[in-house]
Iron-siderophore ABC transporter substrate-binding protein (Paeniglutamicibacter terrestris), 347 residues
Amino acid sequence: MDVVKLFSSTLRPRLGAAKATAALFLIALTAGCAAGGSTDTAAGNSDVAVGGERFSTADEQTAKFGAPVEAGVFPRTVTHANGETTLDKKPERVVVLDTGELDAVVSLGITPVGIPSTEGANSIPSYLADAVKDAKSVGTIQELNVEAIAALKPDLIIGSQLRADKLYPQLSQIAPTVFSIRPGFPWKENFLLAGSALGEETKAIEVLNSYQDKASALGKDVKGDPKISLLRFMPEKIRLYGNASLIGVILNDAGFSRPANQDIDDLAKEISGENLAEADSDWIFYTSYGTPEATGEKAALEGPIWDKLEAVKAGNVQRVNDDVWFLGLGPTGASIVLDELRSYLVK
């Protein structure tokens, strides 16, 4: 089967599409605070953050980007969120500016020379740490070090408007720079854009098709129709994650149902510790962005509400790796999430 046709037939619909259509879609840092959905850096672009006027169309717009040449052919001109960038040859020294771009290039078999750190429990997503052990730091996701990037003499920089829109003029003077609109729910479109910049379009499509095969198989193997709740503790906030998130897309791709308060075309809904009962469902998967003590996770699980939740009483609750489930933002992380969901849900 033609791999391009296979992938194009499974692209996910727009966020505002009807639920019946959404149930059929089979292929598509979280932002700010490394997965929060808003930009907390002066270098970013609030229009593409959660609540911004360009948030909900990021997937549709990113799908239009790329290079109109055959896979692997250079030179090529890549259309992206900040215009056009010409690459004379296949990049060899790549700097990435976020965890989504990191997952993307590693998934394509490329080791970046420069990577940022996060403010999560691990400065580098643990599942990618071995693959990038020799990469140099270029600052944090929130505070990129332009001088450190320049010192690495990259021949490609991959980032996003959400993180570094105002830095684009400086970065593009250092090396050819390709920006997506935002990380998060458009992770598939972002991955294809990275593949286009690297001349690895064919491999990118193959990776996404493999991911979707795994998601579809999981959905078929799970008995019944369990509703899945996604709970994340963060400093000074608690979130229930919706459809416009990495994990929300993964659950939809596998055909899983969501509680009504999370079946929303948004990144997340915020709740208070007093309203923790709103996280209840058939299954609860939870984690923290930071230590359990700092995020309030420890206090919530030891409080009066947690043990009364139906999922907790049934034993259908699982703490997961924040690095993967909420910071992965690419196909390698997504594939691990599917493996973990299978281990919990398929008996």
